[in-house]
Design a protein that fits this description.
182 residues, alpha/beta, 8 helices
Length: 182
């Protein structure tokens, strides 16, 4: 077997997303080293997607960009978004992982959002700056995120992404079970 590090491309420069991708790949494949390239991959959706569909599309667009411009064993992208559910507004992320043979899409856990936060997002704000104003923080989206602030540090953005990525990797471990029915 080749002892070269596993090469991954992450479609973001945000250190939270890059760290989550590195942790998920290292943990899932039990590899001692990875070669990680973080790139500024465009989502081609609004900076703050306001629906599940747009959030998913943003993550898929980031993956496609990475695949078109870089060579890697795996490509990973995350897109944070918000939407309303029957229970009110929530924030979550879509994650996408791909290699040359397959692509898997997953979604993180959802965090309920205060209605006043959601109203600010509807007016064009992004979640990170809204949370920074509410909690007097700076650039929280590159640290614990709204998740960390609203849970009092019991959960954080990186952990939420890492878990979603690990779950989205299941089809790579068992491709025969996930193969399309013919």
């Amino acid at each position: 077997m080749n002892n070269a590090p596993l090469k991954i491309v992450v479609g973001s420069l945000n250190p939270v997303k890059v760290n989550a991708a590195q942790h998920a790949i290292t943990q899932f494949f039990a590899v001692p080293a990875i070669d990680c390239l973080a790139v500024d991959a465009p989502s081609s959706v609004a900076a703050q997607p306001l629906s599940a569909e747009l959030t998913r599309l943003g993550a898929v667009n980031r993956i496609k960009y990475c695949q078109q411009h870089y060579e890697a064993d795996y490509y990973l992208a995350m897109e944070g978004g918000v939407d309303t559910t029957i229970d009110g507004p929530v924030t979550f992320a879509y994650v996408v992982i791909a290699n040359k043979q397959q692509m898997s899409v997953g979604r993180s856990a959802s965090l309920p959002l205060p209605k006043k936060v959601y109203r600010a997002l509807q007016q064009g704000d992004e979640l990170g700056p809204v949370m920074d104003r509410l909690f007097n923080t700076t650039n929280i989206k590159q640290r614990g995120g709204a998740i960390g602030l609203l849970t009092g540090g019991q959960a954080n953005r990186e952990g939420n992404y890492t878990q979603a990525l690990i779950l989205a990797l299941a089809p790579f471990l068992h491709p025969e079970l996930y193969a399309q029915d013919e």
